[in-house]
Amino acid sequence: MSNAIAYVSRDTDGLHWKKVLEDALGPLDFRTLKGGLGNTDDIEIAMAWKPDRGLLASFRNIRLIVSLGMGVDHLLTDDRLPDVPIVRIMDDGLVGQMSEYAIFWALRHHRDIDKYAELQRARTWKALDFVDTIHRRVGVLGLGVIGQDTARKFAALGFPTAGWSRTAKDLPGIETFHGQDGLAALLARSDILVNVLPLTRDTKGILDAGAFAALPKGAYLVNMARGGHVVDADLLAALDSGHLAGAALDVFNTEPLPADHPYWTHPRVHVTPHIAGATNPRTASPGIIENIRRLRAGQPLINTVDPKTGY
Ligand code: GLV
């Protein structure tokens, strides 16, 4: 019987996952990349994060791929991905962390915390002019589970908040835009732009010179989606010209960010190492457990991914 579960990620040894799954499902044939996958013909389910291209295709009896990220571009870029259902985690813990990340950097910018840190270094007691919260407009690119949570929390803090998505959405208390024209309108009213889009054919490079020029002067960017959304040379030019006030970047075209990349030392850039939303076994496992049960009972899966839309 081929019913092994393979943990295919280099991020951790995967043993915490074995524990949370076994607590719910009983003893499992649980294999990990780090511990060795054994005979891969036994693998029924792969829980994957950034698997090597072609690896999942070598699991000849695989029946389900579980994305350990809410984003699935790390799977869909594998042109040899086996033709089996893909489900992704839905992780409230990760979602909450993402919102926290965006709110943290937005407030740090909004409340001039970096300028006050400089004043402290100079032992200078000086109040700077402030921007009223009702005049600091936040725009969220992407209104999936993460974008909705982020937008709702910004709105609750009193920021005029809008969001943009591919298809029209209606959200209480949030101004919504969609489509190409909607994107220009969203950008034009975003003093703080938060990106949580999925990376797809349509969104790759969406944050380019044109998008930055469409933002109001002095806008601030928080990118916690994917580095591939950003044309790095265009972002650096927009920062260097002073059009953008700054950027908090958690994700990069190349990860780890190469040591000689200008972002590391740019005075207006804050770099974090793809930690905005960490997959949390406590909050991500219930959906995975449900899907394992459903797969084995022949029932419809939840949190499924449409490879055509890319999310
Ligand atoms: C993290 O980047 C994720 O996709 O969950």
Describe the structure.
This protein is an alpha/beta fold and 311 residues long. It folds into 2 domains: 4-91 and 279-297, NAD(P)-binding Rossmann-like Domain (Rossmann fold); 93-271, NAD(P)-binding Rossmann-like Domain (Rossmann fold), CATH 3.40.50.720. 31% of the residues lie in helices and 17% in strands. It is built from 9 helices and 12 strands. The strands form 2 sheets. The protein has a 7-stranded parallel beta sheet, sandwiched between helices. Strands 2-1-3-4-5 form a 5-stranded parallel beta sheet, with helices on one face. Helix 2 (73-76) links the parallel strand 4 and strand 5. Helix 1 packs across helix 9 and helix 3 packs across helix 5 (145-156). It is elongated. The protein binds glyoxylic acid (GLV). Glyoxylic acid binds at residues 69-71, 94, 277, 279.
Secondary-structure element order, as H and E? EHEEEHEHHEHEEHEHEHEEH
> CATH superfamily name of the largest domain?
NAD(P)-binding Rossmann-like Domain
Give the second-level CATH assignment, the architecture of the largest domain.
Answer: 3-Layer(aba) Sandwich
Shape: elongated
Distinct ligands:
glyoxylic acid
What is the number of domains? 2
Radius of gyration: 21 Å
Strand order of the largest sheet: 8-7-6-9-10-11-12
Q: What is the CATH topology assignment of the largest domain?
A: Rossmann fold
Q: Which parts are unreliable, with pLDDT below 50 for 5 consecutive residues or more?
A: none
**SS elements, strand count:** 12
Please report the first level of CATH classification, the CATH class of the largest domain. Alpha Beta
User: How many angstroms does the end-to-end distance come to?
Assistant: 32 Å
| Class derived from helix and strand content | alpha/beta
Question: Helical content, roughly?
Answer: 25-40%
Mean pLDDT: 97
User: Beta fraction of the residues?
Assistant: 15-25%
- Helices, by number, come to 9
Main sheet specs: 7 strands, parallel
